[in-house]
Design brief:
With about 70 residues, the protein is an all-beta fold. The chain has one domain. Helices cover about 0% and strands about 55% of the residues. The chain is built from no helices and 6 strands. Strands 1-6-5-4 form a 4-stranded antiparallel sheet, with no helix packed on it. A two-stranded antiparallel ribbon has the order 2-3. The protein is elongated and about 30 Å long.
């Protein structure tokens, strides 16, 4: 199940987003880079439980959206 969190509303830094770890449920704040493209995907280990998550980042309409799925 994918967990998502929305950040980037007006006045909020678009260089940071958050996702909820699909394994342990912790909200993880991550740096994001808009210059890497409007849609990004990569694997990152959760800093809390060390389980791998497939991180999806999307920049649209002045907002950044990030969510995670369990890495298979």
């Amino acid at each position: 199940m994918a967990s998502e969190s929305f950040h980037g509303q007006q006045g909020v830094d678009l260089n940071e987003a958050a996702y909820t770890c699909d394994h342990c449920g912790e909200e993880i704040v991550i740096p994001v880079d808009p210059s890497a493209g409007v849609r990004q995907e990569y694997v990152e280990d959760c800093p809390v439980c060390c389980s791998p998550n497939l991180i999806q980042v999307e920049f649209t309409g002045g907002e950044v959206r990030a969510w995670a799925e369990a890495e298979s």
